[in-house]
Amino acid sequence: MTITAEPSAEDLRRRLTDHLVAEGVLHNPAWKHAFVTAPREEFVPAFSLRTADGVRAYQTGEPEYLETVYRDVSLITQRDASGTATSSSSQPRVMAAMLEALPDADGTRVLEIGTGAGYNAALLCERYGDEQVVSLDIDPGLTAAARQRLHSAGYTPTLITGDGTGAHTPLAPYGALIATCGLPRIPAAWLDQLAPGGTIVANLGYGLAVLRLDEHGAAQGHFLPEMASFMTARTTSESVPSEQHDVTTLMRAVGTVTSAHVPWDVTGPMPRFLGAMLHPSATDLTLTDENGTTVHAITDAASGARARLSHRGEDARIDQGGPRALWDERLALLRDWSRAGQPGVERYGLTVQGCTHTLWLDTPDGLSWTLP
Description:
Belongs to the methyltransferase superfamily. L-isoaspartyl/D-aspartyl protein methyltransferase family. This is Protein-L-isoaspartate O-methyltransferase. With 372 residues, this protein is an alpha+beta fold. The chain is 25% helix and 33% strand. A hairpin with a 5-residue loop joins strand 3 (75-79) and strand 4. Helix 1 (9-22) packs antiparallel against helix 2 (29-37). The longest helix is centred in the N-terminal third of the chain and has 14 residues, at 9-22.
């Protein structure tokens, strides 16, 4: 009888690294070394993962635990009392894409917003050195656990418990800032913490923005080809209750009724990206009514506006109520996207000057939109 040995953690790290290279998201030898070296299993002793059969929990020592740790998937590492996920170890593919966008310079001082499990901080330590890495999280339980696990794995970055959307000037300036949480907009305080020419890599909606601070104090750059959506940044350690919606209310007409030609799948990647950039505080839901009509509902908590787009084929009825015409705003941006040949996310860029965010296509001097 032949007994096949289980692959070791070292073997699985090499396999994951090879996969990320083959996927085209990992190129730099320094980051390859980091992924081959940093032990992800040290930071996720217990986690859950959504499978075809539902959510499955894993713990150290269980069958398939180690193999699952080194799959290219996001691992949920903390949930609140209601079962809502509040922390995770991000998908390695997305982590690699974001890390590769950071400065390729030894000794770069980096501020990470969103320590989470601590694995990304370990990768940063491997690349830049422990003394150059500062990692921050709003949740004291997460920073305490991450500190213990990082030290156990041989890493000693500076860990801070605090609100990542604010300023942390005692340790500034930073050559780079990377946010592993979702944000509606780039906080103005971040620009003050960057050294001249410093880099921000952050998730806005479904986009991953790579911005560099110019001589005028503005942060500007393109979005990566990869799309992702992280857990929203919290400004307190308490989890934010999930927004609940009454389906009956969403399916009802809400105000002014118009019609429109909508030749795109409004739930596709680019419409979702553009919609989230335009309406960062909105919630999108897609439903089907009793007649088989697809209804796309938008509710914007910030303004109190609601809108429904219902259609069969390319003809749509739009119902809108509140202070903003949400679907009118979104369709105008989608028409610009369509007239430009439906470009991908990597052709879009962003300029941040103080609190003003300007989305643009191809170049800052080209077609642009000031975001509300």
